[in-house]
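Bit of a strange request maybe. I'm writing a small parser for structure token strings and I need a real example to test against, not something I typed by hand. Could someone generate the tokens for this chain?
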Amino acid sequence: MGRHFGNLAKVRHVITYTLSPFEQKAFPDFLSKGIPNVWRRVTSSFFTVAPPMTLMYLTYTWGNHVYEQGKRKNPADYENDE
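Reply from user aminoacidic:
Good idea to test on real output. This should exercise your parser:
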């Protein structure tokens, strides 16, 4: 009935190595290297990401405010109604 999913194609001259999940550490050096690396990456890209995000947030809130104002009725239109 055809080939199994893992054996769909025969690849030549490619060597792959794997390590058993039982032999590797799940979070190696997470506290000593991981958190400082995250902090370094966030601070290095903050001034690249923050201004456009702030501008887009202000545009979004302004647009919602104008939309809500546009949905209101003008009281001056109904002054002479009885």
